[in-house]
Amino acid sequence: MRTLSALVAPERVWWKPLGKDEKAWFIASLLWCLFMFSVMWWWPLVGEQNTPMESYRVDPKLFQQRAEAFVARYQVGELNGTPVVRPPAGEDVYLLARTFQFQPVLELQKGQTYRILLSSIDMEHGFSLQPLNMNFQVLPGYVYVLHLTPQEAGEYSLVCNEYCGLGHHLMTGKIIVRE
Ligand code: CUA
Q1: For the CA atoms of the chain, what is the radius of gyration?
Q2: Does the global pTM surpass 0.90?
Q3: Index of the ligand 1 atom closest to the CA of residue 171
Q4: pLDDT under 70: residue ranges of the chain
């Protein structure tokens, strides 16, 4: 009877000893792992990555209340059903993410520094500011503080880049920067 080679058990300890090539590749990948691990520590300095480290725990209901109060206070218009808000610099700016929208649309002044409080009231979303390609996670229960100083006037898009459900691809927002 013919035996199918795929059904034959491999020899015992078939992986020993390591061949020369295998050793070389193992060492190369290990060194690469260690190098990539070290990048986490020095790249924030060398690459001028100034990701803020400020975040707090928050009750999503409380965050929603404060975000709504913020909108009520500084709303100046509406864009496709989303309130447009023009906050003064120095004031806490709320940006709320929920399935499937970012609220409100922010209207900011070029050159001013804003303290943006970012959170979700239902599930994990992603904050991707385009075309600058700045990306942050937005988690319910946590406020992430983003210090933003717009350098150029124009319209910037927000895109959710964490899959959050059937309307994920529709989840966009906007930041308008005025001169
Ligand atoms: Cu929100 Cu994807």
Answers
A1: 24
A2: no
A3: 1
A4: 1-6, 49-52
